[in-house]
Predict the structure.
Amino acid sequence: MILHLTGLAWTAELPSHGITEEEDAIHRLVLWNIDLTLVDVARVTRATYAEAFAAIAGRPLIQLPQTAGRSESEIFFDALALNGVDMRAGGEAEHMLEPFSAELARALQARHDELTSQGQLLPGATQALAAVAKLGGTVQTVLTGNSRPTAMLKLRAFGLDGFVDFDIGGYGSEAYPKGTLLRVARQRAGDKHGVTFGEDATVYVADSPRDVDAARIGGARSLGVASGRASAAELREAGADAVLPDLADIGTLVTLITRLTGPEPLAAGA
Ligand SMILES: [Mg+2]
């Protein structure tokens, strides 16, 4: 299910708060990272990755590439190079990405029970998505290194899929750097809703310094969440506009999202 929050619903919910029509209109885009921001399914992802890599590259995945904050396509080509696949133009690596992506999604589907038995929902993730879904004039989707089918599987396993509109997301199977991918997602959201989501109307909630870079390059505010491999200090150092230890404090999260995408600039150090 996709939640479409219209101005009408917002007005109906809060009839006596003096919400103006201008505030009702769609004006805010919230992009969520998935891995280590909303869910931790690293173990099953790694196992699935090795399986799909062996099936497509025809050799075992021995050297593991860095994965934090990177896209499926980046990780795949790095893995090929690290594991001795011919990377020259016309070499065997070409044309492997698409079948790999499909194989990875198939392998994860086959292991989908393990997403919940071996993985976990991160604290506050469900409540955070639910709270943002209730914010007036807001649409939310994912900006992730995962392909769309993999992203959907991971969120569906934990009952999070109904909160986001997958049609307007940005996915790691698309061979763009993440900052460009953010622009693509913003454009998709803008086209769908007939509005322009500017830099000050878009926020990326994510756990990696690479995501902070992507927000800067892609034109969005960044809200760092230190639930991944990076510490709060590292996220701040990377230039995050705000940092939270995790998603557990829903009140603060919503305040930060609202302020980062609102007319008043956020005070430094918030
Ligand atoms: Mg992440």
Remarks:
- Residues 1-22 have pLDDT under 50 and may be disordered.
- The chain is about 45% helix and 10% strand.
